[in-house]
Amino acid sequence: MKNKAVFIDRDGVINEIIYHKEMGILDSPFNAGQIKLLPDVGKAISELKKMGYKTIIVSNQPGIAKNRFSEEEFSKMKEKVRDELKKQGAVVDDEYYCIHHPYGKIEEYTKKCNCRKPEPGMILKAAEKHNIDLSNSWMIGDGITDIQAGKKAGCKTIMIGRMKCDLCQKMAEENAEPDHITPTLYEASKIIQSR
Questions:
Q1: Among candidate residues 41, 45, 64, 65, the one with its CA nearest the CA of residue 53
Q2: Which residues contact 134 (CB under 8 A, 6 or more apart)?
Q3: 101 burial class (0-12, 13-18, 19+ CB within 10 angstroms)?
Q4: Could you give the residue numbers annotated as active site?
Q5: According to the model, what pLDDT value does residue 19 have?
Q6: Which are the contacts of 6, defined by CB distance < 8 A and separation ≥ 6?
Q7: What CATH number does residue 32 fall under?
Q8: d(Cα 88, Cα 41) in Å, to the nearest integer?
Q9: Which of 1, 107, 127, 137 could form a disulfide with 5 if both were Cys (CB 3.0 to 4.6 A apart)?
Q10: pLDDT tens for the chain, residues 1 to 195
Q11: Which residue range(s) make up the domain with 53?
Q12: Is the pTM of this model over 0.70?
C-alpha cells in the first residue's frame, strides 16, 4: 500500500521570512540566527503525522547559488529548523532542497534544473523514495511556484497567506490556483483533517 504525504515549503510556511534592511528586501533567512518558526508549526506537523501523512520539506534555497550564504551556514540553518521543531515535539520525515538558480553567482550552482519549483522534481524524488501516492497527497506553500509544483506532481494544494487581487490575477494567468488558501500551516492541517 502506498503512503500519503504533505509536502511543505520552508520559508514563509515553517519559518518566518526576514526583512534584510541592508538590501531592502524580504527574503529567506541568510543565517541560522535568523530562523524563527511561525506559530503552531510543530503542532501542525504533529497533527498531520497523526492523520497518517508523511511530512516532507521541499524548498527552493538558492542562497548558496546567489552567494548569500555558504554550504556550512545552510547546514546550520537546516539543523536549526530541525532543532526548533523537536522543541515543539515535531519531526519531519525527510527534506529536499534545490540549491540551484538559473542566474546564480556561483558557477557550480548556476543552472536550470527539474528540482527547482515550479518543476516537480523534489516531490517526484520524494514520492519514489517513500512510495507515495501523489493523488492522495498535498503540497503546502506560500508562493505560486509551490502551487505549480504540487499541481504538476498531481497533489492537492494549499496556499499559505492572504489573498491579494494582483496575486489572484497572476495565479489565474499561471494556472496556479490552489485548492485552498489559509493563513497558517496549522489551519492547513485542519483542512486536510476535514478531508
A1: 45
A2: 123, 127, 153, 154, 155
A3: buried
A4: 9, 11
A5: 87
A6: 48, 53, 54, 55, 56, 137, 138, 139, 140, 189, 192
A7: 3.40.50.1000
A8: 8
A9: 137
A10: 999 999 999 999 999 998 888 888 888 999 999 999 999 999 999 999 999 999 999 999 999 999 999 999 999 999 999 999 999 999 999 999 999 999 989 999 999 999 999 999 999 999 999 999 999 999 999 999 999 999 999 999 999 986 666 677 777 888 888 999 899 999 999 999 998
A11: 4-194
A12: yes
Q: Determine how many CB atoms are found less than 10 A away from the CB of residue 81.
A: 23
Contacts 24+ apart (CB under 8 A), 82-86: 84/15, 84/35, 84/36, 84/37, 84/42, 85/14, 85/37, 85/41, 85/42, 85/45
Q: CA–CA distance from 131 to each of 73, 104, 125, 159 (Å)?
A: 31, 33, 10, 25
Within the chain, what is the greatest distance between any pair of CA atoms? 51
Instruction: Give me the phi and psi of 8, to 5 degrees please.
Output: -125, 125
Q: 135: helix, coil or strand?
A: helix
Cell numbers for 24: 531592502
* Phi, psi dihedrals of residue 9, rounded to the nearest 5°: -65, 160
Domain count, the chain: 1
Query: What span, in angstroms and rounded, lies between the C-alpha atoms of 157 and 138?
Result: 5
End-to-end C-alpha distance for the chain, whole angstroms: 20
